[in-house]
């Protein structure tokens, strides 16, 4: 399948690490100490003082700059609408308290797509669905280049599955000359789907780990007709194999009779013998043939 290029916008924001970020454990202790001194100062003066208010505000600013980052999680920071960087190191981190912070998951996710009704390359309606395993790779693109990256993944996955289904025939019975079909070339089809999804989702900073077709069938309105055609094709193939084997056995029988000189058969007798043997070998029911070799 010819892949379609989906170039990333020139205004795209690329992920970068946040340089101004420190461990928050020591500052947490400092904030608690400041909060305690602010409380003590307030209790001693029995009214808010400049010292108690200052200590209280400083402790609040330290607390506001704290971020708890779990494994496979990131925090995106912005300041007055400007992207400052992404924190990915897990633990308690502290940044400028005036930065806006947004958490984003880096864990792998599953998208179990619904069955879509699409026309394949031959125009037959089929039902197809895919399972996609994906995760956020570039937090900046996932946050700033698309409105909602989860919805973007869902819609683009459906579009990719529809394009894939319309690019190939369901099986070889639909297109005898096709090298790749949806049913008979599962490995290649999955590779093409994964490649198409990665190209479509690159602008959202999402990478596809695995993509597989989970459901493939003819649409209900033509399923019965297609089943009858497949059964007919299977019956024809079986009959062809039976006839090929029977002809070989008849040829072998005639050669052995002639080589051993058991009987001498003219052309008419050979034709009759061949006819009887084919009836015996190709018939569906048991028969009791009478082979007459006398003059």
From TrEMBL:
<keyword id="KW-1133">Transmembrane helix</keyword>
<keyword id="KW-0472">Membrane</keyword>
<dbReference type="GO" id="GO:0016020">
    <property type="term" value="C:membrane"/>
</dbReference>
<feature type="transmembrane region" description="Helical">
    <location>
        <begin position="50"/>
        <end position="70"/>
    </location>
</feature>
<feature type="domain" description="Band 7">
    <location>
        <begin position="64"/>
        <end position="230"/>
    </location>
</feature>
<feature type="transmembrane region" description="Helical">
    <location>
        <begin position="22"/>
        <end position="43"/>
    </location>
</feature>
<dbReference type="InterPro" id="IPR036013">
    <property type="entry name" value="Band_7/SPFH_dom_sf"/>
</dbReference>
<dbReference type="InterPro" id="IPR001107">
    <property type="entry name" value="Band_7"/>
</dbReference>
<dbReference type="Pfam" id="PF01145">
    <property type="entry name" value="Band_7"/>
</dbReference>
<keyword id="KW-0812">Transmembrane</keyword>
<protein>
    <submittedName>
        <fullName>SPFH domain-containing protein</fullName>
    </submittedName>
</protein>
